[in-house]
Every structure is written in C-alpha cells, then in structure tokens.
Amino acid sequence: MSTRELSKMGIATVALNIDDEGHRVIDKFPVGDVEFAFYQHTADELNQEGIATPRLISADPTLRKLRLEYIPNPVDQNAVAGDAILAMLGRLHHYPANFEWRYHPHSWAESALEKSLILLALPDKTAQQLRRFQRCSHVLFYNQCLVSGDSNAGNWGKRDNGDLVLFDWERFGTGSPAIDLAPLVKGMGSKETFIDLAERYCRISCHYKLNDLAREIAIAKAWIVTEVITLLDERQKAAFPIYLNWYRENLPEWLDNTVKML
C-alpha cells in the first residue's frame, strides 16, 4: 500500500491509497460530523442534480473514516472561475435546503475577528476597516442557499472523462452564494473582479442582484482572512507564517480600495 498525505488546512488525515483491487482511492479520517453526514445522506441527492461529488466507497462510523473515489486531475486557479464551475455552484445554491441535513454553522463573530487582528498585528486604520467589513457580514449568513463553504481551487478536480467534481464538504452549510464565489477569485481580488464574477454568475444562475452579490463577494473575501488565520493558528499549520506575512503585506491597500463597496 502506498500513501501520500494530501491534507493542507483540515484536521483530518487525507491519504491517497491503493485498494485491494489496485485502484487508487482517498481515505479521510477522522471526518467531522458535517462531512460524514454529507456523504451518508446528502451527496447522492446532489449528484442527481448535477452537483458532482466524489463517489462514496465505504464509511466506517467507528473510525469516522471515509473511503472516497480518487479524482485524478486538478483544476488550476486560473480556470476555477469558469462558467462550468459557476453553473454547478448555481445548481447547488438553487437546491432547497433540507432541515434534516447537518450543516456547518458559518458566522463571523466579533471575537474571531479580534483574535485574527491580534495575530495579524495590522496598522490601526487597516484594523478599523476590517472591523467595518465584519459589521456588514450578516448579509452572508441569513440567506438559506446551500453552500459548499470551501470552494477554493484545491477542492476541485476532474475525472479522466472531464467531469468536474467538488470535494471536501466539511464546511457544507447555508448562506450567501458569495461564500462559494469569493474563493474562486485569485488573491484578494478587486472591485472589478468581484463585479465581473457576479455578472457572470447572475447571467448563469439568474437569481441574484449583481451589485448586491459583488458587495457580498468583497465581504466574504474579508471574512476569509479571519477564517484562514484563526484556523491555521489553532491547527498549528506550517503555512501559518506564509499567510500571515502575505496578508500583512496586501491587506492595507486592498482594504483601502475595497471598503468603498460597503
């Protein structure tokens, strides 16, 4: 058996293994309640609606272990905001939420923001601007659209036949479509990129006001800063100083330019 560690930010071990029949598979464990329930009760229903997720091979509730189909081909960051991905996300966002499913509780608590600001040690003006985004963030969470919650390029892949697949559903929940659209934008993005993305998404999915969605994408981008920094710190990931330094370098100018969208 050959094993290759694939996990980056999550708490679970994600490994590429070879099963007894010589097929490549993904083993993920220990899987949280949201993702374990997703593959047991939700994935098949979404797949039937054209929202492609890896096929579940087996689930061990004792070990909290999932064995999943291996999706062999990555999707490049520059291609992740293509129309095919926007269309799949649009189908997810349109699909009615089921109150019996288990969801990750998305929020941007003031306590989480303040913790991230301590870690980031930003200039006071920049910190105040980020606080303004947090005070507007309720628009991300009251919407009852289904969201994957983690749609970045690293969680997309293609089967050998070209079919797109979205994996890593530990943040499956409800909220604004912007929660899934913001990670598609490379880096922090700009007002122009947010408007362009919102325009293309609205053209494909036909259920959102362009200006409202562009604003929510900007807010979601700011929220992701807190999510990434606090998670990397809590989980003691090696990438923490890389992200910390990048945000310190790029956030002041980005917030100066983007706070006008609020």
TrEMBL record:
<dbReference type="InterPro" id="IPR011009">
    <property type="entry name" value="Kinase-like_dom_sf"/>
</dbReference>
<protein>
    <submittedName>
        <fullName>Phosphotransferase</fullName>
    </submittedName>
</protein>
<feature type="domain" description="Aminoglycoside phosphotransferase">
    <location>
        <begin position="14"/>
        <end position="206"/>
    </location>
</feature>
<dbReference type="InterPro" id="IPR002575">
    <property type="entry name" value="Aminoglycoside_PTrfase"/>
</dbReference>
<dbReference type="Pfam" id="PF01636">
    <property type="entry name" value="APH"/>
</dbReference>
